[in-house]
Amino acid sequence: MKKTVYFPEIFEEIGKAKTRKEKIDILHKYRNVKGFYEILKLCYDPNIYWLITRKDIENLKYKDMDIADYDLAPTTLFLLARRQLQNYTNLRKPPLKKEKILRLIAGHFSSLYYEEVELFKQLVAGRIQKKGITEKLIRDAFPGLLSDPVIPAKPKKKTKPATKKKVQKDDKKEDPKKEEPKKEDPKEKENADADV
Fold first, then answer.
1. What is the tens place of the pLDDT at every residue in 3-28?
2. Using an 8 Å Cβ cutoff, are 29 and 20 in contact?
3. 138, 146 contact by CB (below 8 A)
4. Going by C-beta distance under 8 Å and a sequence separation of 6 or more, which residues neighbour residue 40?
5. Is residue 36 within a helix (H) or strand (E), and if so which, with residue range?
6. What is the pLDDT of residues 167-176, one digit of tens each?
7. Considering the entire predicted model, what is its pTM?
8. Which residues pair with 50 in a beta bridge?
9. What distances in angstroms separate CA 19 from CA 12, 14, 26, 133, 164, one per listed residue?
10. Quick one: DSSP state of residue 70?
11. What DSSP string runs through 116-171?
């Protein structure tokens, strides 16, 4: 058996498995591969989303190094999963600009074997395109690995602010307890002063 197994090979093996139990057994077999959990989370966790789409990277121009085999590639998804892929998702605070993400991914693509480039595109799309590899399978194989979907709060209904009704002086209701202070009549004041 070869020493290093790459992600596309792992998912190919899972896709060829006949039963659900066999698929879960294969997932468990590779649980200790560095970056494996990260790849599964980046693809299937409902609360992690990519800041780019597959359409953005589908026809991305990059320098194709025409790498003949995984072992000859300068880097692998193993390394990227552990170090950089989360930077292209909502996990990165503050988020990178889309143009910068695309430039960095073009650099990754030029140093990955073509099967890993295709797997990378599938991760961004949110589904590994091998038979039977679903979010439910991942949840069954690794309970607690993926977070529960966060249901966004329903937006509050916009209500019109209450408008104050203009009160006319004639419409005022007088409160019997409140009496307006009496205005002194200047003539009465003069008469009161004269009496003194």
1. 678 899 999 999 999 999 999 999 99
2. no
3. yes
4. 138, 142, 145, 146
5. helix 36-44
6. 555 555 555 5
7. 0.69
8. 89
9. 14, 10, 11, 11, 69
10. G
11. HHHHHHHHHHT---STT--HHHHHHHSTTTSPPPPPPPPPPPP-PPPPPPPPPGGG
Task: Match 């991942």 to its residue by tokens.
Answer: 138
Q: Which amino acid is at 16?
A: K
Tokens of 102: 């695309």
* Location of structure tokens 């249901």: 151
> Helices (H), strands (E): how many in the chain?
9, 0
